[in-house]
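Researcher: Here's my situation. A collaborator sent me these components and asked whether they could plausibly form a single complex. I don't have experimental data yet, so a predicted model of the whole assembly would be a useful starting point for our discussion.
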Amino acid sequence: MQLRLVTALVLSFAVIVQAAPPPDDQPLRRSALLGFDTTSTATERALEARFDATLNPGDLRAWLKRLSARPHHLGSAYGKENADFIAAQFRAWGFDTQIEEFSVLFPTPKTRVLELTGPEKFTARLSEPALSEDATSNQAAEQLPTYNAYSVDGDVTAPLVYVNYGVPSDYEELAQRGIDVKDKIVIARYGGSWRGIKPKVAAEHGAVGCLIYSDPRNDGYYQGDVYPKGAWRNDMGAQRGSVADMPLYPGDPLTPGVGATAGAKRLDLKNAPTLTKIPVLPISYGDAQPLLRALAGPLAPESWRGVLPLTYHLGPGPATVHLKLEFNWDRVPARDVIAKLRGAERPDEWVIRGNHHDAWVNGADDPLSGQVAMMAEARGIGELAKTGWKPKRTIVYCAWDGEEPGLIGSTEWVETHADLLSKNAVLYINSDTNERGFLNIGGSHTIEKFINEVARDVTDPEKKISVWERARAQQIVFGNAEARREARDRADLRIDALGSGSDFTPFLQHIGVATLNIGYGGEGQTGGVYHSIYDSFDHYTRFGDPDFAYGIALAQTGGHAVLRFANADVLPYAFTNFADSVGQYVREVGKLADNMREESMEKNRRINDNTFNAVSDPTETYVVPKADGPVPYLNFAPLQNALANLQKSAERYDAKVPSRAATPQMQQALDEALKQTERAMLRDEGLPRRPWFKHQIYAPGFYTGYGVKTLPAVREAIEQRNWPEAEQQIKLVAETITRIAVAIDHATAQVR
Amino acid sequence: MQLRLVTALVLSFAVIVQAAPPPDDQPLRRSALLGFDTTSTATERALEARFDATLNPGDLRAWLKRLSARPHHLGSAYGKENADFIAAQFRAWGFDTQIEEFSVLFPTPKTRVLELTGPEKFTARLSEPALSEDATSNQAAEQLPTYNAYSVDGDVTAPLVYVNYGVPSDYEELAQRGIDVKDKIVIARYGGSWRGIKPKVAAEHGAVGCLIYSDPRNDGYYQGDVYPKGAWRNDMGAQRGSVADMPLYPGDPLTPGVGATAGAKRLDLKNAPTLTKIPVLPISYGDAQPLLRALAGPLAPESWRGVLPLTYHLGPGPATVHLKLEFNWDRVPARDVIAKLRGAERPDEWVIRGNHHDAWVNGADDPLSGQVAMMAEARGIGELAKTGWKPKRTIVYCAWDGEEPGLIGSTEWVETHADLLSKNAVLYINSDTNERGFLNIGGSHTIEKFINEVARDVTDPEKKISVWERARAQQIVFGNAEARREARDRADLRIDALGSGSDFTPFLQHIGVATLNIGYGGEGQTGGVYHSIYDSFDHYTRFGDPDFAYGIALAQTGGHAVLRFANADVLPYAFTNFADSVGQYVREVGKLADNMREESMEKNRRINDNTFNAVSDPTETYVVPKADGPVPYLNFAPLQNALANLQKSAERYDAKVPSRAATPQMQQALDEALKQTERAMLRDEGLPRRPWFKHQIYAPGFYTGYGVKTLPAVREAIEQRNWPEAEQQIKLVAETITRIAVAIDHATAQVR
């Protein structure tokens, strides 16, 4: 359900650095792959070539057409049909396949009313019309209406306030203009944060209701011609989506931390902490326009304004809005398809690959574009297995249900099998949407070097250069000076740290499995139908990846990664890249505190010098902000010392690893030691106030949702000006990093 | 006619520097004023207090109402009435007043046709409707229609191309997308450059016609509620304005360099080089919308898009446009009102103060808001004179005609009296529009210290702090880190260098008179009626400066400056601030060349490495740019050495000047020497290819129009990659700076 925003192609020459010539990636291809020796490398490459020969874009097209033929959300009839279909395919390809069911809370709308009651009357349409150009858009009987899942029921009437993206800093801007949202209904635009943050922050500020609309600036005609003429969101398109407080915990709201099996202990609905505190509803810009037009009050700050043909005011009122929402608070079955191919040598080391199968509606792009690529991988690997080849490690393919409402299928499966997975899982590779364009990689930096090797060996279907080379060119052209320098000078492309937004979260952040999230995009134009009825086969084959060439590229990327990880002599982890990224995060949190100190000093100086008052316009309300408390100098030394140790440990392992462990037993012992390096990144207590999130390096931000916070316990304590907690968490994170270094040293000791 | 764009009030804490506490400006008030000793300072301050007591906002309101009652453009009946009225006032206040007439080319529309001929039909309305809320908006018989003066006649039909702001870099973006404008009609939006640049650059690229429209993003509902509900431009408002190639020379297009007197030698119309090469017409966003909506072709780059409710495409076509323009190519009288108050001691030293009186239509803000403040000054000074006080130097008040079409009244007067002015003028102070807000100062840095002193003594009517303090706070809050540091640490606020856009240009850039341009703004909202029929008394008294408090502030600022300059014992020039700014410009041109070198190397590297091709989308046209030629290292040493000398000369003068010259004769000799420091900034040959512009420190940019280029001969040679010229001009500008230093040394030698 992750939305990748399209970056406009701005060819900017603004900031330039001089850099060395690009590293030649050819020697890497000739030498041994990470985790292999030269002999096993040759075998692996030959196997991958055979795998590639199995891939056929016609398969992807046929599966996409089949799976997107009807709406298939969690708990739907066609969702069940799809799970059964996928399971049958996996079985036919030789996988040991089951459908695992969970029973999970999934509210669907019973009543949705949104009216402008004054100064004029207007009743919002709240529906996306069928289009003759889109064959599946007329399946109204099976479509979920536009709504935000896990909004509470509510019936409120109140003046409206426009809150921009509805993130905390937006409320500071409002306060400077003398506006509060207590007992008001807020209208926020999509963007700037994960949607669930908007009602959460609104409720923290006392609002009684929340509307979220798609402004055409972010998601509509400003981005391109609208559907069906072009790819982008039309004036009646609305973005469904979950608003459960997933930064607290994902999965079924009633079963935090445990699998939602039939007999699981469940919270009462009224005690479920991840439901919203206020009713919330997503609307189209067609429905938002009369509401926004009826606002008076101060002009919105320039960066808040969208491109509707009106002047953006903040309110409150005179627009008064009536919002009434009632839901069916049902439990429905979530059906995960789990397909295993047992490893011949190390069956208890699991390489797991997943992509969800549920959608908000027909979901051709989200999630089926990734699902069909994953199916192609599984079919290819099944074909190889039918010829007698067996993977060294066990391969597990997973088609998740219930990702859209809240990563439910993956989370409940991980929670149910936490002990086994913690023991066995060596890798989780996720995908979700996939379109024409550039390879995007997020993940654990312990496998950054590994996935760079994989990317160097996949050919971009449009450019006939490696997808690695193309991603590198993208960084050079669109990145800032630092990104450009790195892209040219660093041996490997730096992968993104993972926040949340897809099924990798439970693997990475709850049980500490090395994780990758992969996909192509940036050229295909599917953002404008995200979570709408128009995310259809017709749309995808016009605007997503018409010939499925990038579906094949994703199957190659995922398939090679799975095969290499499953077949490697030793697990292809490497640690200097990881230490390099952790070093970056340590510098960032230090800089964050320094910047906050300087900003607070500057702000307080302006307050004391009367500078704010001197520039304010007396014809407008201006409330001077409250002075900040001082930002103390924090003791970062524990983190810095732990980092220094980590760097040394990482260098020792990476320098030694080419010699490899000699015997299969020694290799397996090394594998076991390597697995523990990942587990060492967790703390059982989890993050402050959200124990479900145990990873100490990566987490979704408590106030960003999808957006990652690295070293989250430290970073968020600083951001929230909680200095005692910052000092405490610096020590705890330093301990964690030290444990990681010790685990690496233990692995190094296994290498002969 | 200068348009100050409103800066949105974004309270940004992004970039912070630590800085020393603010300098205390009180000591300056207690000590002697620049150019005065302590005794004469006391006298001067007492005089200024008496002057302030003469100022009355009721006068300003009455004059504004009277002068804006009917349209009063160059050559109009009411323009003549206004000139006569202003002259009568000056006479009544005791000034020796004349109306000087020139005969100047001023085309007015005979035919204006703009049609979309395909794919649909649409005929542009090309007129601004009368509004019942605006009493003078219905004077259609006297209003100039919406047009751009000095467009050539033309009758063209061609496909349309959207060119963003229509500046040179925009055509590079088009070329990258495979689009050229040869034989096309371009549509550009207002903003990003002076309007006259748009048809000039379009014609250079082969376009056959040019439309300029006001996008609501820059100038319409995006900025605020539109007139008459709010202050901003409505969908039928259009911006008139001159498109003569004023960066070549301003004034009457037929009499470059000489006064347009009755018997002046004139160019044939067909040889006038400042007329456009192609027909050009300004239109409203209401008229632009059907044209833009009918464009196909590539999506416009994100930074090019406005906020009309449509998707911005580039074309060419399928929109095809018919543009037909015919003008009455008449000569009309331009009437300058020139009012003198003879100096008692040094009558041949002239302190000149000007503001234009002509408007595009009723012109309440532009230019009358400045004009009525200037009239209040003149009346106050006249009152002082009636009590027996006489200025030491001659004071000249000027109400210019024909500024809007091209600084005509001021330019022709300066050209006519160039020898006398070159001998006598010691200062020119200009104003134009004026609204609520912050003091803006542009001008010669030799009088930066002087005008800072003046600004410290004027009280802001809203905040009851000095206008200097408020301008300083504005820099602290809205400036970048460097501006903030300077505002806190530098003794004086740095004033802006002057490009063009109002009547200061001939004084400063043609004959080398120390110049200031002053005005208040930033809170008043008049930008949305700029050059429209709605720039009216009704609008101004709602949105500009309703109680004329800032009119009084401008009268105080201008009046004190005039009185101090006229009464000073010695001319209050100072040179270290000037040397400081020249030093900044020298560093900038060096950095410009360095940046261009790095940008060219980066660009060429991307071309050679195939990086651009690697990221382009094969479904869209992408033309790899041509490689840049190398940027050589230039010898900036002559400039740097000349600057070092200038700095020393400046320090010597400023250190010595407090002792003053002793006798009146010696004071006068020093004045004469100081005057020559300004004249030394000129070169007779002028700038390359535009000899009218003789100033070597400040000029309007050849491709920016209003925007200043400092050290223009060097800067523009570099920008245009003309390396031999850059090397040559570095030497010539260095010679000029050396001459300035010698002139300063000569002045220093006069000081005892």
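Model: Some features of this prediction you could bring to your collaborator: Chain A touches chain B through 62 residues (CB under 8 Å). Residues 55-104+333-567 of chain A form a domain with the Aminopeptidase fold (CATH 3.40.630.10).
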